[in-house]
Amino acid sequence: MGKQPYFFPLRGKFLVLFVLLITVPFVISGIFTYRKYAADVDRNTRESTLTIMEQMNLNLDRYVKDIDRLTQAPLYDQEMLNILTRYSGTYEPDLYLPLEVTGDINLFLSSFTSERTEIKGILIFTNNGGIFSSSANTVFRNWEPGGNEWMADVRAREGGLVIVPPHKANYYDFPLEVISIAREIVHPRTRTSLGIMKVDLSAEGFERVLSVVDFTPNSRFFIFNQDQLMVYPFHLIGDEKWSFKSVTRDTPDHIVSTVSSQYSKLSLVGHIPLEDLRQDAQELTTFTVIISVISLFVAYGIAVFISNRLVTPIRHLKGRMSLVQNGSFQAKASIIPNDEIGQLAIAFNTMVDELNRLVREVYETRIREREAELSALQSQINPHFLYNTLESINMLAMHNNQLQISDIVTSLGKLLRYTVEKSERPVTLKDELLFVDHYLQIQSFRLKNRLHTVIDVDPSCEDCLVPKLILHPLIENVIEHALHQKTVTLRVTAHFEEDDLFIQVIDDGVGMTANQVEEINRRINSRLPSQLEQDQFDKVRKGFGLKNVHQRLRILYGDRYGLFIESLVAEGSSFVIKIPV
């Protein structure tokens, strides 16, 4: 039988149609409008970004020019030139600088730091190893060749201005991370080297110089010197991910602007996320979406109202049909408009009248059949007649000294009485074991010595209430499937584990394979009738008994309880019933 199609109500179809007619044109126009606005914003912001970068370049050039003039000041002071000439010899590790000399030069250098909080120190490194500084109290008097590799780059420029990337300045009392602007001091007449003048800027000070330009919150700004070494930002220096080539490469989600200074030889690179630049567009879009959502909800409300008016007559007719489906053949459709639905209602009322007539005829026929069935049932044999008949056979067997037949008949009568009486009421485990004992007595006449039975149940378990006839299918299963040529031992045990009672039926018969156990577990857990249950009457119990026990226990006590099976080939089987105490 094919799969039933998914039911989708007519009201839902009307709503989907109205929603599509309202929403699709609106969404399409909104998408194209947003794209046009975003493209205009991108174009305008690219132009404004380049302008910002050029302005930053001008500001940085202006500052570098100021520092450049500062580093040339000693060339215009004859006294400074004389002092520097005096100390322009070869390097002396233990050089001593007189206090009057260092005091004059340090005072001269300190005059340039007024109102320049970004400057950490202005220093002159003499060729013979001395240091003059605007921060005399925090700077050593001598410098060491090791750890000042930047000096080689400065000397290589032969008096040209050099911007030294961030480096560790080890001539302070506490080594600092600084960025510096330096030049070699060359005597204007003799063109001999007198030392190096260096202006140290702290990271915070250098950032204050750059703060005159306002970028977006998520933007990145990079500065590289003429050797394409990163000068700023400090925390990314040395990271190959942010090399000059990587930073200047275009990306789909950023605007990359690069401006180079002819004066300072610095390259300024700005990374501005398009997401930041489109923030205004997003705000406008958000406002438009809010207004549009409100409009859509109003339109959807109108669509719901119209769809309800269209669907109400159909719902009324569906309700009448449901009453007829439930057996009320007097239900008639009414209050139907004069259209196709009205014609459908007229046909429905005609159909109900015809169904009512046919049902009455079928009902009367069925009543007559019921009366005939009741008469047949009343003629069936009363169970008490069977008890009396079995008692007569028992008396006859005893009269003829046929004690085995008497035992069989007695056990059969007790089995019959146990199954007929007490209906489905719970019984004690003791009664259930007694029933099993009678059943095994009857089977012992047929099986002879092929089955040996041991009932080993703790007396404390015998008064527990259990469902009726839950052990018989397990015993019968052993007799049907577990016996072989040797004697099979059947053991019945019971014990408590916390609040649960475990009843175990164990045999050492032929056992089962793992596939057989898996198949039995699948069948007893199936909610659908198995193929075996649809066979003729005399074969049903072979596939039904275990499933009946398991399903009854799960219905009575829940999915935690039931019948559990373990088995190995040639080692026997174990059937465990778990029920709550």
Major β-sheet annotation:
5 strands, antiparallel
Number of strands: 16
How far do the termini sit from each other? Answer: 45 Å
Outline the low-pLDDT stretches. Answer: 372-382, 530-542
- Share in helix: 40-55%
- Estimate the mean pLDDT confidence: 77
How does the helix and strand content classify structurally? alpha+beta
Q: If you compute it from the alpha carbons, what radius of gyration comes out, rounded to the nearest whole angstrom? A: 52 Å
Regarding quaternary structure, how should these chains be classified? single chain
Beta percentage is: 15-25%
Overall geometry comes to elongated
For the largest sheet, list the strands in their spatial order. 2-1-5-4-3
How many helix segments? 15
Describe what this molecule looks like in 3D.
With about 575 residues, the chain is an alpha+beta fold. It is about 50% helix and about 20% strand. A 5-stranded antiparallel sheet has the order 2-1-5-4-3. The longest helix has about 60 residues, at about 10-70. It starts with 9 loop residues before the first helix and ends with a strand. About 20% of the residues are buried.
